[in-house]
Amino acid sequence: MTQRRNNKKKGMVGELLAANYLQSHGYELIDKNIQIGHLEIDLLLKKEDAYYFVEVKYRKNRSFGDPIEAMTKQKCLLFKRAVFAYLSRHQMSHEIIHLSFMGILEENGSLTYNWITDFFA
User: How many CB atoms lie under 10 A from the CB of residue 104?
Assistant: First the structure.
């Protein structure tokens, strides 16, 4: 399996774990893997009157650092661009939105979730 395919598969696992975790905490899954040109939004959820655009990073161990360390300045910028393009395309100028991050670390068979609601503020 190529590295790219392996990364995509790992990303899908992380997104599924994140979606399940957030749904168990009262969030409604609206959409996932939203493509906007070459940009992507991993998850879009809703809770009460607010929408949560979520970037998910999943690590099976710390060999590449904690998930949050993968959020470079460039990746943050691309995520923001994707969200603003989505908002414009769907005419969501009056909605309450949160640009969020979900980091998931798997160690010794245990999962640790790092949910930051307004990571990109």
Answer: 21
pLDDT per position as a tens digit, 47-103:
999 999 999 999 988 888 899 999 999 999 999 999 999 999 999 888 899 999 999
Tokens describing residue 90: 């769907």
CA 9 to mean position of chain CA atoms: 15
* CATH fit for domain 3-116, picks 3.40.50.2000, 3.40.1350.10, 3.40.50.880, 3.90.580.10: 3.40.1350.10
Is there a contact between 96 and 49 (Cβ–Cβ < 8 Å)? yes
